[in-house]
Design goal:
Elements: E1 2-11, E2 14-24, E3 32-37, H1 43-56, E4 62-67, E5 70-75, E6 79-80, E7 83-84, H2 90-93, E8 98-106, E9 123-126, E10 132-135, E11 140-141, E12 145-153, E13 156-163, H3 165-179, E14 189-193, E15 196-199, E16 214-221, H4 223-234, E17 242-247
Antiparallel strand pairs: 1-2, 3-5, 3-17, 4-5, 6-7, 8-10, 8-11, 8-14, 9-10, 12-13, 13-16, 14-15
Helix pairs in contact: 1-4
Domain SecDF P1 head subdomain: 138-235
Keywords: Signal
Signal peptide: 1-26
Length: 248
């Protein structure tokens, strides 16, 4: 982008234009950089997904380049209250695997593995309140997700997740089953990102009803955390992306 400045003078009542001087547009200096090692043949795809993640996370001053199995991202963190927002490393390298699982047991009855990545048939997670939840098989996966974005509802930040038609059907089937559980402790579903618990809401529906199309996750998120979680959910990366250097 260039701007043009016209130099003008008036001589004997005649306006003379001295020409146009083109001034180069000064791009902002980018103060942060990460360099990633990516699986062979995926650099362009990873760069595209990272661009989407940075858009959702509000990181607009950035550049992304590729060279073989390396992807370099230079950027300026967004600001809030005049201060740089902390940009988490997982924004650049975490797979962004999204799953929803049913809660099948609570507390002392929970005995499953704590590996809740997608390949696990069953697993267990611990909430911030130190409650242990045993989880069943994946009911909704990242292939069912259409989009994710940060939302501010009544001054509380959260993440809104919209589903594909297939995802809406899967969510309806899972939530409809949970709504009919007789034990109130088992009417909950766990929403996970890369195997880590984001929320475990209770399905507050009558038996015969179900959820579909979208869900909202809230609780303990500030704007930056909501935006970065939404960025991870909306643009999955292949396994094996790894930061090899960063600055500052």
């Amino acid at each position: 982008m260039r701007s043009c400045v016209l130099a003008a003078a008036v001589v004997a009542g005649v306006l003379l234009l001295a020409g146009c001087t083109r001034l180069p547009f000064a791009a902002p200096e980018l103060t942060h950089q990460v360099v990633l090692r990516v699986p062979a043949g995926t650099a362009d795809a990873v760069a595209k997904q990272l661009a989407h993640r940075l858009d959702v996370a509000g990181i607009t001053e950035r550049s992304i380049g590729t060279d073989g199995d390396r992807v370099a991202v230079s950027y300026n963190p967004p600001k809030t209250g005049g201060k740089d927002v902390e940009v988490r490393d997982d924004l650049f390298q975490a797979p962004g695997e999204f799953t929803i699982r049913p809660v099948t047991a609570v507390g002392a009855k929970a005995t499953a593995s704590d590996d809740c990545t997608k390949g696990a048939e069953a697993c267990a997670v611990t909430t911030e309140e130190h409650e242990v939840l045993q989880l069943g098989p994946v009911g909704v996966g990242d292939e069912d997700l259409a989009s994710a974005k940060a939302v501010d509802v009544q001054n509380q930040w959260g993440v809104r997740i919209d589903f594909t038609d297939g995802g809406a059907a899967a969510l309806a089937a899972l939530s409809g089953k949970l709504a009919c559980e007789e034990d109130p402790a088992l009417t909950r579903m766990a929403i996970l990102l890369d195997g880590k618990l984001l929320a475990a809401p209770t399905v507050q529906l009558e038996c015969g009803q179900s959820l579909s199309t979208s869900v909202e996750i809230s609780g303990g998120f500030d704007r930056a955390k909501a935006e970065q979680n939404a960025a991870l959910l909306g643009a999955p990366l292949p396994e094996g992306v790894q930061i090899v250097s960063s600055k500052p």
